[in-house]
Structure to design on (382 residues):
């Protein structure tokens, strides 16, 4: 991955290349940015720039062999850690090395992919991914040895907020007393979920979502689509290139989310005047509870955004509204009057609490049924 392949983020690319060219490479850096903003892609380009001693031309200086290793994500001095789960092939104590072939496939197919895409590739089902202490032990082993090519050793820790306490504590010692010519690049979408002792030892770089112009230009150049369609998709993607590609390919990942959301709020409206409709909410809760936990969390995140979009429409800011539900006879403008300043805070708190309990392996059916009954009351609050 070369810097010239990265979409936008010019100020970050300039900062990284200049500091590397001047020999000012912090031993630990934390890249914080939303999904689809290019944090992983830039981490790969930065690692390639350093390990291959690339110049501003990036692929010059006679480093073709080094750059070829990056084309297959197989440079011996480049290491990765990422969330994993137990599978049919790895039944206990999973670690990143156990899934390296899947990881390489994931990077090569879509370096802008998100955590949900990675979990889908692994087939997590009802499990939740985690970076375990076994990974931290592998880091200690790898960094105890000299680099293969005599230069830096780079460790990219993707979704560092998924480290459990044991892994974080073991990694902390390496960050406090780093070996010579080692570079840790931690990547996360949620800075506050990373323990303070690790954050304080990293140089933090914040990434913004990509601009609509950058996303549209990439869609036109890479996927050869018409300009107006590219701009429409870029607006809906909200700075997330991964989402833009999914929308372009008519990925239906979120289509059932829309359907489930509409069924949910319609049942909540009915239940206010018809107690029998409570049964519809219970059946809905059972259906969503049958999904994997990661799908449940993603769906709740989708619901939060739907309520937010309705609120923006209710408060007469249509330019900020990008969601366009396709469910029959459901219009966001008709739903918007029921989302206002008197209930949005409570709705958000209930959805956030439900996600919190699902993350901690609570009984999804009980959590979602409780959430549904509360929504019945909140949705009618004037």
């Amino acid at each position: 991955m070369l810097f010239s392949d990265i979409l936008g983020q010019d100020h970050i690319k300039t900062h990284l290349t200049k500091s590397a060219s001047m020999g000012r490479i912090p031993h630990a850096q934390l890249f914080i940015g939303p999904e689809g903003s290019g944090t992983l892609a830039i981490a790969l380009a930065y690692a390639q720039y350093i390990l291959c001693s690339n110049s501003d031309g990036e692929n010059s200086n006679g480093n073709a062999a080094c750059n070829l290793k990056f084309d297959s994500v197989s440079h011996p001095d480049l290491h990765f850690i990422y969330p994993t789960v137990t599978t049919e092939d790895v039944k206990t104590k999973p670690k990143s090395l156990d899934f390296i072939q899947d990881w390489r496939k994931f990077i090569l197919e879509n370096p802008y992919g998100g955590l949900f895409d990675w979990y889908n590739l692994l087939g997590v089902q009802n499990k939740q991914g985690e970076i375990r202490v076994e990974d931290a032990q592998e880091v200690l082993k790898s960094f105890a040895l000299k680099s293969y090519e005599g230069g830096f050793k780079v460790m990219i820790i993707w979704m560092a907020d998924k480290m459990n306490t044991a892994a974080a504590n073991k990694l902390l010692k390496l960050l406090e007393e780093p070996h010579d010519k080692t570079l840790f690049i931690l990547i996360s979408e949620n800075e506050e979920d990373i323990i303070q002792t690790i954050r304080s030892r990293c140089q933090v770089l914040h990434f913004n979502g990509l601009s609509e112009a950058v996303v549209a230009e990439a869609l036109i150049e890479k996927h050869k689509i018409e300009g107006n369609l590219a701009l429409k998709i870029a607006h809906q993607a909200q700075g997330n290139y991964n989402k833009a590609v999914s929308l372009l390919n008519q990925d239906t990942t979120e289509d059932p989310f829309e359907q489930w959301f509409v069924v949910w709020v319609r049942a909540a409206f009915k239940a206010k005047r018809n107690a029998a409709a409570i049964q519809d909410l219970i059946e809905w809760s059972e259906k969503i509870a049958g999904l994997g936990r990661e799908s449940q969390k993603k769906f709740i995140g989708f619901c939060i955004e739907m309520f937010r979009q309705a609120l923006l429409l209710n408060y007469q800011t249509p330019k900020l509204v990008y969601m366009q539900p396709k469910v029959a006879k459901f219009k966001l403008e008709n739903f918007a009057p029921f989302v206002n300043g008197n209930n949005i805070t409570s709705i958000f708190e209930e959805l956030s609490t439900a996600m919190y309990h699902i993350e901690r392996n609570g009984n999804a059916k009980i959590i979602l049924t409780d959430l549904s009954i509360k929504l019945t009351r909140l949705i009618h609050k004037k």
Notes: The longest strand covers residues 182-188.
